[in-house]
Amino acid sequence: MKSHALIAGLFLMSSLASAQTPPTPPDAEKKPHVVKAPFGAERQDEYYWLRDDSRKDAAMLGYLNAENAYADAVLAPTRPVQDKLYEEIVARIKQDDASVPYRDRGWWYYSRFETGKDYPVHARRKDAPGIDALSIQQANAAGDFAGEEVLLDVNQLAAGKDYYSVGDYEVTPDNAVLAYADDSNGRRQYTIRFRNLATGQAYPEAIAGVSANLVWADDNKTLFYVENDPETLLTVRVRKHVLGTDPKLDPVVYEEKDDSFYMGIDRTRDERYIVIGMSSTVSDELRYAPAADPREFKVLAPRARDVEYDADHFGGRWVIRTNDGKATNFKLVTAADGATSRKDWQDWIAHRDDVLVEGFELFDGFSAIAERSGGLERVRLLKPDGEEYIKADESAYSMGLDVNSETDTDWVRYSYTSMTTPATVYELNVKTGERRLLKRQPVLGGYDPANYVTERLWATARDGTKIPVSIVYRKGFEKNGKAALLQYAYGSYGMSMDPGFSVTTVSLLDRGMAYAIAHIRGGQEMGRRWYENGKLLHKKNTFTDFIDVTDFLVKEGYAAPDRVAAHGGSAGGLLMGAIANMAPDKYRVILSQVPFVDVVTTMLDPTIPLTTNEYDEWGNPEQKQFYDYIVTYSPYDNLQAKAYPAMFVGTGLWDSQVQYWEPAKYVARLRDLNTSNEPVIFRTNMEAGHGGKSGRFRRYREQAEMYAFMLERLGVE
């Protein structure tokens, strides 16, 4: 067998030599390897050798580079379309845009971009008479940065790096010291650094191997952070660091022994407490200590299986969102200071079968509740004189609470978007009803929402369940069964994929395509039961829902049966692998990003990041019941000798959530079994992790490449 380096060179030569001679895809070597389950089940995994935790194995890297070279050769003819798509997308972006400022401890905080640069500048301005969110936005838009204090210029920090990200930053309560956590390879193992904001001087200490979650104590010198396990990346310990001391001596505040739990830290709404939150798929536990003297952390309520809760403190009491007492869609309860048990909880907002409580925000004179009903988000305002709902402007939309940093106000900020309306931030006066537009995402290039139509549809699944679908297309679109369609979904972890605006989707709509989001089971769009009916031993509902939505859209004339593309990423990539096996003839092309496609092997290995925390999402295949079910849908295990559609599979070498070897093995086995002549592209980003390359423009290059491939396969001009 030729070396992968030689193959890569031959690919490049062949692409230059003759466009009529298609390049030959890489042929990964097979090496027998048996994966065993504790109860005796065995599976053959001939490409297991592609796994390398160090990311340094020469043979593995050679194979990935060969696949990249093959992708370059196959996609070379689409380069003009790639360039055109990229130019269109970037032309819609206001390059010197900025976020809506919010006020905190006497300063207005915001992030802004500079023209031509990839990374944000995080900054703040001192509060003063006449200064507000609108005036700062106007100054930023005019390029007037007088009085601005730059906290982090991420462009400078990222200079010379292939990947760079600031995951979190926090300023001390006295506004004097900045702590920030950065990642330089995409693996989400962060390093904490410190800076004196008065002098700009960096502190000498750095703390590596942590999550991007930072909280200061009231003494302005003690920082709490979460330490990761270097192998599994699980959040295992909370430590505290005192400025000017050796990080190696940082004491452990709390250590989590159960590896099915994640951990995070925060401050409460009233700033009184520092909290440590532990969360698994099916239970939670919160510990709290006074921010002024955080030496002892009390348990708010001990963890119990199937009891989930999160809490905030304000107005002298705890407000807790929980499913306790069979409150499937969650309810709100309260507890007094010093509470340490669920016995201390008192019902406040009752549970409803038709309304999912997703979150809340507490103010001095009112409360705002984030809810979901009928598959759509809404915000309920509880006031002394009654309650009301913030009104939506369209039939299919996304709405939620925005940054509300202040409690002593009559204004509540919320975000709003739809598949035609760019991301918008409003604030509403709960006393007068006045609504102010703080910002709408600028979309350049002549974009006009009036030229596009969005609909909310309902498809009937094979078991009779009604599946909500959000769809958008350009005016003039004919439902004559001839158009091309891109259908997207996720369908896992109870994550809802709500309809929102996308600057990249416009390029598809302007070419006559329709774009649909299938709100399938496994998400939480229709309430908590929607999630429960799409996980564990009900997981296949996720896949059949997606296929049934496709059939519905084709039947209703939104797409030609041979011009449907499917798109999903991560757990949505599992969805893509499953539908490719179950209904390959219904899709002309499948776009699969960082796909979770080898469910059995991954879930049998507790050393892989995320595995132990997700036994209650997928099931633990060490138990025969779950093994037998998972193995019937795991994409890698169900590849067969059949004609598969064209595919674009993408991954990142440093991905910490779905390891690169899953799609690598999947593509290698797919090539062995695929009987069609449709191309399979496997693109590995060698410098990135789960979210792709860093920088706002680089990711559009990647998306333009993927979309150009799709348009060519769908026959879209």
From TrEMBL:
GO terms for molecular function: serine-type endopeptidase activity. One of its GO terms (biological process) is proteolysis. InterPro entries: AB_hydrolase_fold, Pept_S9A_N, Peptidase_S9_cat, Peptidase_S9A, Serine_Peptidase_S9A. The keyword Metal-binding does not apply. It comes from Thermomonas fusca. Pfam families: Peptidase_S9, Peptidase_S9_N. Belongs to the peptidase S9A family. Residues 1-19 form the signal peptide. Residues 26-440 form the Peptidase S9A N-terminal domain. Coiled coil: none annotated. Residues 500-715 form the Peptidase S9 prolyl oligopeptidase catalytic domain. Keywords: Hydrolase, Protease, Serine protease, Signal. It comes from the Bacteria. This is S9 family peptidase.
